[in-house]
Design brief:
The protein folds into four domains: 207 residues, Rossmann fold (3-Layer(aba) Sandwich); 99 residues, no CATH class; 84 residues, Luciferase, Domain 3 (Luciferase, domain 3), CATH 2.30.38.10; 167 residues, 2-Layer Sandwich (GMP Synthetase, Chain A, domain 3). It has a five-stranded parallel β-sheet with strand order 4-3-5-6-7, with helices on both faces. Strands 12-13-14-15-16 form a five-stranded mixed β-sheet. A hairpin with a 4-residue loop joins strand 17 and strand 18. Helix content is 41%, strand content 22%. It has 663 residues and is α/β, with parallel strands linked by helices. The termini are far apart. It contains 22 helices and 28 strands. It is globular and about 80 Å long.
Length: 663
């Protein structure tokens, strides 16, 4: 048995030496797992499924169709839209021909889309629907290289009489015709592919400026996808729901590359609005989400519980208190008393199990979070339910670097390096790394590449961190954002922001304090959570602006901020960075207004510049501040919001002497 098992494990390693591109992996999966499901999509309320053999035919038809249209090795194919099987297949089709897919964020406005497509020199684009086509048509005159637009969903496009506009099905039919005349063409193109070839260009979110095109080879993507899959024991039986932007590196690794490497099935939701319902129906075993998704889910749970009856609320809070105490240790197989295990089993039957089922988390074996630090209380909440959520450290420029091993999951670390990943901490606390996943460079940006990637392969992450005695990496903040208050106290804005965002009433926070006498912040309330609170407490309001300005809402937020200050008082290095003043913004921070990236990261520097008058007011003596700001509506129209915002002083924890506000 031992010999047979050794041989079984050895065979894939031998086969994989030749499977160095995604198209080759596709053909291998079609041959070995032809009948197993590769993709699912919910359309008009019905789940449709494609096996690996069927997916391979779909990809080959479209690849041949692209070739018939003139797509050639080295060409760039833009991909714009929500998570759809056809868009994922278009990525693979371009790679079959030696082309390079360039995914674009589906919610990007036309100008943002124009920058990426022009910078990447895209000749062909696959767009999901009329909305994306219309954005392309609005900027097409400024994209001289763009030759063809291929659309997936034909609704609303029937009367678009443009010679460069093609239906996806029509391109596939052209591909079948092309294949009959050139039967060996596509396999010849696939065979030419090598692991060192450029596989994809993924654009950064542009937190501090224009996005940069990160060039990743097949080796970069496949080797690290395999390393992570091997550590977690992922195989073809996993189920994944792909709902995060296709243009995001996380989706490209977890929904795309790992599915080809392991053969598991990827499901696409019907729409962004139905993700939670589709999540319950699929019941994934492998789940990935940034902290904001987990925050949103928890907020909904807490809102529902506050609306429940007295008895149910009491039972929920009782068993959740037990779960927070013993749920994590039980999940980690640590010693727990028989009595606590018995009570936890009762809680699982009454609370934890039904809650996980309602969320669609009943079958989750592994859940990841990354992108930003997750609040320790939020992290512990999910683990207390028995959900094996873990943090990892990944970058667009390197795929996956660190993962928390089972049994060593901690709320304040991002885990240990994967195999073949080297990490060291520079003198300024910056994390520097080297691995097989290190990107080839920034597209058309040799200077930016040289600033980030050294000739010997070491890459500057831009993150500040350190290794603990346990060998786990801990990330503090972006290195350039870590500063000091005027009195020398360490100031880590993201650390403060993440602690604030744990509270269900706070959706976003922007902290200020570097080179200033004290820390202060802007707050965005969560309209759903605060609106629900207002309804239960008989508080009336007519708009977000009105709700955000209510004294009762300020009292609610002030309680959250003062709780954070008490937590900070227990941190020796951060106790002096307690928050002294805050205001609640009159509008939600929006990517269309440039305040957030497309991955929902706060653009702190831009916000500070845009609302400089509010920042100045926080550090002055005024109790209010006036603001007039331009906003962008969903249809592209511009408008102006004017408001007078209150500024609140916050109590400093008694254990820390308050700082002087005078410079």
């Amino acid at each position: 048995m031992a010999v047979a098992e050794t041989e079984r494990k050895a065979r894939p390693a031998v086969r994989r030496t030749a499977l160095d591109t995604i198209p080759k992996l596709l053909l291998d999966n079609a041959a070995r797992r032809g009948r197993r499901p590769a993709m699912r999509e919910k359309d008009l309320g019905i789940w449709q499924s494609w096996s690996w053999a069927e997916a391979a035919r779909q990809v080959q038809d479209f690849a041949n169709g692209l070739a018939a249209l003139g797509f050639r090795r080295g060409d760039k194919l833009g991909i714009i839209g929500d998570n759809r099987p056809r868009l994922y297949w278009a990525i693979t089709a371009a790679q079959c021909l030696g082309g390079v897919p360039v995914p674009v964020y589906q919610d990007a406005v036309a100008a943002e889309m124009e920058f990426v497509l022009e910078h990447a020199e895209v000749r062909f684009v696959v767009a999901e629907d009329q909305e994306q086509v219309d954005k392309l048509l609005a900027v097409r005159e400024r994209l001289p290289r763009l030759e063809a637009i291929i659309y997936d969903d034909a609704r609303g496009l029937r009367h678009y009489a443009y010679p460069f506009l093609h239906a996806y099905e029509r391109v596939q039919q052209q591909g079948r015709d092309f294949a009959r005349l050139n039967p060996d063409f596509l396999h010849g193109e696939i065979a030419q592919g090598r692991g060192a070839d450029l596989a994809v260009i993924l654009y950064t979110s542009g937190t501090t400026g224009q996005p940069k095109g990160v060039m990743l080879t097949f080796d970069n993507v496949i080797i690290m996808a395999r390393r992570a899959a091997e550590r977690e024991g992922l195989d073809e039986t996993e189920e994944v729901l792909a709902y995060l932007p296709i243009a995001w590196a996380g989706d490209h690794i977890f929904s795309y590359a790992q599915s080809y490497c392991t053969g598991f099935c990827v499901s696409c939701p019907e729409s962004g609005a139905t993700v939670m319902a589709d999540l319950r129906e699929i019941g994934p075993t492998y789940f990935f989400a940034p902290p904001r998704i987990y925050e949103t889910i928890l907020t909904r749970v807490m809102i529902r519980m506050e609306d429940a009856g007295w008895a149910k609320r009491r039972m929920f809070h009782h068993f959740m208190a037990l779960a927070r105490r013993v749920g994590g240790p039980i999940l980690d197989r640590a010693p727990v008393s028989f009595w606590d295990r018995l009570l936890y089993a009762v809680g699982a039957a009454l609370i934890y199990g039904p809650l996980k089922n309602a969320l669609g988390f009943s079958r989750i074996r592994i859940a990841y979070t990354a992108g930003e630090a997750i609040g320790p209380d939020l992290f512990s909440f999910y683990r207390s339910l028995g959900i094996n959520i873990k943090q990892l450290y990944a970058m667009t420029e390197a795929s996956i670097l660190c993962v928390q091993p089972d049994g060593q999951v901690k709320p304040d670390t991002v885990g240990t390096p994967l195999a073949d990943v080297e990490i060291r901490i520079a003198e300024n606390s910056e994390v520097v790394y080297r691995s097989p996943g290190v990107f080839a460079g920034y597209y058309k940006s040799p200077q930016a590449t040289a600033e980030t990637k050294q000739p010997d392969g070491w890459v500057h992450s831009g993150d500040a961190g350190f290794f603990g005695d346990d060998g786990h990496l801990r990330i503090i903040d972006r290195a350039k954002d870590v500063g000091k208050l005027r009195n020398g106290t360490l100031f880590a804005p993201k650390f403060l922001e993440n602690k604030l965002k744990f509270f269900p009433y706070i959706k976003e926070a922007v902290a200020f304090g570097a080179d200033r006498p004290f820390a202060a912040c802007f707050i965005n309330i969560d309209a759903d959570a605060v609106g629900n609170w207002a309804e239960r407490n008989g508080v009336t309001y007519g708009s977000y602006l009105e709700l955000a300005g209510l004294d009762a809402v300020y009292d609610l937020v002030q309680e959250c901020v003062e709780t954070v200050n008490r937590d900070l008082a227990a941190e020796p290095h951060l106790a002096g960075s307690q928050i002294h003043r805050f205001l609640i913004l009159h509008k939600e921070l929006d990517a269309d207004d440039g305040e957030l990236t497309r991955t929902r990261k706060v653009r702190r520097r831009y916000i500070g510049e845009r609302y400089q008058s509010l920042v100045d007011a926080l550090y002055g003596e005024a109790r209010t501040a006036r603001i007039a700001s331009e906003v962008t509506f969903e249809d592209g129209r511009k408008g102006t919001i004017r408001a007078e915002l209150a500024i609140r002083d916050v109590k400093i924890a008694a254990s820390v002497a308050p700082l002087r506000r005078a410079g």
